[in-house]
Design brief:
Elements (H helix, E strand, L loop, with lengths): L2 E12 L2 E12 L3 E5 L6 H8 L7 E6 L2 E2 L5 H7 L1 E4 L11 H8 L6 H6 L4 H13 L15 H13 L5 E5 L7 H14 L4 E5 L3 H7 L2 E6 L2 E6 L1 H5 L2 H7 L10
Parallel strand pairs: 3-8, 3-9, 6-7, 7-8
Antiparallel strand pairs: 1-2, 1-4, 4-5, 9-10
Helix pairs in contact: 3-5, 3-6, 6-7, 7-8
The structure holds adenosine-5'-diphosphate (ADP) and magnesium ion (MG).
The site of magnesium ion has 2 residues, from helix 1.
Length: about 250
């Protein structure tokens, strides 16, 4: 398999505390990899380490075979890794269309982006992004009037507007209604037609909806890896989840 992202024995240490104790994983082209695990397992730290936000103490991160370990977040983003954080980072006073415009690759600053003439290619690109996130019919609505879930989709749109080859999503459905959660799963499946996707998630219904391969993190280590049913039937996983959120949520 040609990996888009390849992580080898990654370790992250915060003042003596080992948040990641040697995690290895690969993400293939246009693959969806879902990461689950109890609070504090190191899921967000793993994404932070990949994008250069948490210092890597040992191990390696390769992107399309090139080592990117401990490069700056800016440089890593420019190379084509897109990361969406837990809280939407959108311009509320602007329309959805304008938000996507500002996120397009090669845009420099709000003023020049919003005042310069739009080329056909840019308009088409924005329409393509809006279609992917299911908001094409709301293009000229202000972001401030959108629901929490719709704002999250706008931010996903802002990430794909930059043409990343891989997108990392940290709990994209947090705070969403169940309808919004389901739609987010459909959006992720559509996005995976063009991009690899790594999703951190704890809602097992959602995981079942999107998951191809699941990785379970626990106390900074990979506890299990496999399909939904392999992971659900793994005794180590069952033990970790006992007395917590149950992993075998009834379908
Ligand atoms: P998850 O996303 O799986 O809930 P995190 O990756 O956020 O877990 O955190 C993993 C562990 O690392 C937790 O014990 C957390 O307290 C610790 N941690 C995360 N970030 C920092 C930091 N910047 N400084 C110190 N400890 C941190
Ligand atoms: Mg987290």
């Amino acid at each position: 398999m040609d990996s888009v992202l390849s992580i080898k024995d990654l370790k992250v240490v915060f003042s003596g505390f080992q948040a990641l104790k040697g995690v290895t994983l690969d993400v293939g082209d246009r693959e969806i990899v879902t990461i689950i695990g109890p609070n504090g397992a190191g899921k967000s730290t793993l994404l932070d380490a990949i994008v250069g936000k948490s210092p890597v103490a040992a191990g390696h991160v390769y992107y399309h075979g090139r080592e990117i370990t401990n490069r700056s977040p800016h440089e890593i983003a420019r190379m084509g890794l897109g990361r969406k954080f837990q809280n939407p980072n959108v311009y509320n006073g602007l329309t959805i269309f304008e938000n996507i415009l500002l996120a397009l690759k090669g845009e420099h600053g709000i003023f020049s982006s919003l005042t310069s003439k739009l080329t056909r290619a840019k308009k088409d690109k924005i329409a393509w992004v809006l279609d992917r996130i299911g908001l094409l019919d709301k293009a000229y609505m202000k972001v401030s009037s959108l629901s929490h879930g719709q704002k999250q989709w706008v931010e996903i749109g802002m990430v794909i507007a930059q043409d990343p080859s891989i997108i990392l999503l940290d709990e994209p459905t947090a705070g969403m209604t169940s309808d919004e959660t389901h739609l987010t799963g459909e959006i992720i499946k559509i996005i995976s037609q063009d991009h690899s996707v790594v999703v951190i998630e704890h809602d097992m219904e959602f995981v079942k909806q999107i998951a191809q391969r699941i990785i379970v993190l626990h106390q900074g280590e990979k506890l299990a890896e496999g399909t939904v049913s392999e992971v659900q039937n793994n005794p180590k996983v069952i033990e970790v989840y006992l007395g917590r959120e149950r992993i075998d949520v009834a379908a």
